[in-house]
Specification:
By secondary structure, this protein is of the alpha/beta class. Helices cover about 35% and strands about 25% of the residues. It has an eight-stranded mixed sheet with strand order 1-2-4-3-5-6-7-8, with helices on both faces.
Length: about 220
């Protein structure tokens, strides 16, 4: 397995951010992998997910948003986050020009990725993968955060815990039902961090990702 530390240039004002590329010798796809609002790319969930995906022959380029790179708690404005996603997509293409490319992320990172893709349609991107889409703030059920997803004309995979406080099951289910290209996978008992008692959900997340990815690459 190959691991490489990189720097991505976001913009003159936002500067550069750290990134880590992990891949086995013969990957089948490349994911850009963005972190959530509460932790950076080195969070144990992000690292474990990247390693598990690599073992499943999915290369990843995980990266920090500028706020995480600078040790700040307040997430970046969408415009800055979108530029960061764009830089990661460009680097992923450079690293693996012949592989299917997917924009993926945990919570905030997934939402920023989908916002960018909705505003910048790109046929070279094969799909979106959400590891817990943050549909609404905790305790405030709503669906406004999903409005932009209707502008995404590519396959989307939603991996959601049934006890996710940031996406009540009934609401995320209703949202996905209105999106013709969406697939929704339920993880019973899991919260927003995919904690579900003593169940190790990481293999389940990867299995669901690989199963869906196989359908996408076969169809393409």
């Amino acid at each position: 397995m190959h691991t490489q530390s990189l720097q991505l240039t976001v913009s003159p004002s936002a500067g550069t951010v750290s990134a880590i590329h992990i891949a086995d010798e013969h990957p089948l796809a490349i994911f850009t992998l963005a972190h959530g609002a509460g932790a950076g790319m080195d969070h144990r969930f992000m690292e474990a997910l990247a390693i598990a995906l690599a073992h499943a022959r999915i290369a990843t380029l995980r990266f920090n948003f500028p706020f995480a790179e600078q040790g700040k708690r307040r997430p970046d404005a969408p415009a800055v986050a979108h530029l960061t996603v764009a830089a990661a997509i460009a680097k992923a293409r450079e690293l693996h020009p012949g592989l299917p490319l997917f924009v993926a992320g945990k919570s905030f990172g997934g939402r920023m990725g989908s916002q960018y893709v909705a505003a910048h349609p790109d046929p070279a991107i094969d799909g979106l993968v959400f590891y817990g889409f943050p549909l609404h703030p905790a305790g405030k059920p709503a669906t406004e955060r999903a409005a932009h997803l209707h502008a995404v004309g590519m396959p989307m995979l939603f991996l959601q815990g049934s006890k996710d406080a940031l996406a009540t099951w009934e609401l995320i289910q209703s949202v996905c039902a209105t999106l013709p290209t969406a697939s929704l996978v339920r993880f019973d008992g899991a919260d927003h961090a995919f904690k579900a008692g003593k169940t190790d959900t990481m293999p389940l997340l990867v299995d669901a990702t690989v199963g869906w990815l196989g359908l996408r690459t076969t169809q393409k």
